[in-house]
Amino acid sequence: MPSSLSLIAMQSTAGQRMAIWRRGRPKELLHHSDQGSQYTSEPFQRLMADNGVTCSMSRSGNVWDNAAAESFFSTLKIERVKRKVYRTRDQARADVFDYIERFYNPKRRHSTIGYLSPMQYEERAMKA
Description:
Elements: H1 3-23, E1 29-33, H2 37-40, H3 42-50, E2 53-57, H4 67-81, H5 89-104, H6 118-127
Parallel strand pairs: 1-2
Helix pairs in contact: 1-3
Protein name: Mobile element protein
Domain Integrase catalytic: 1-126
GO molecular function, one term: nucleic acid binding
């Protein structure tokens, strides 16, 4: 695997490790993604299998299979990054992290989940 793809796979794996660390090992979890190399990589697939996560991938070239992710990235671009110019990748990464952790997950309400924020929805689902 070329080094750029290895880096992307490592970042994806690190993100999943952080999610498992924060929430604990899931009892039942389905991870749905596109067929990107970061998700088909051996380290990512091993991490998912080792933690009991079932992987699901959309059909090649079919954005409708992953509509939730497509919607998220559209919202991210419109609400946060569209008119910004970042001097460095680290600055962009920090800004996107801030948007997700301080606004999108805890505060931004979504009509598809009963006008709750993702964190509120997750909390209710965990109690059910």
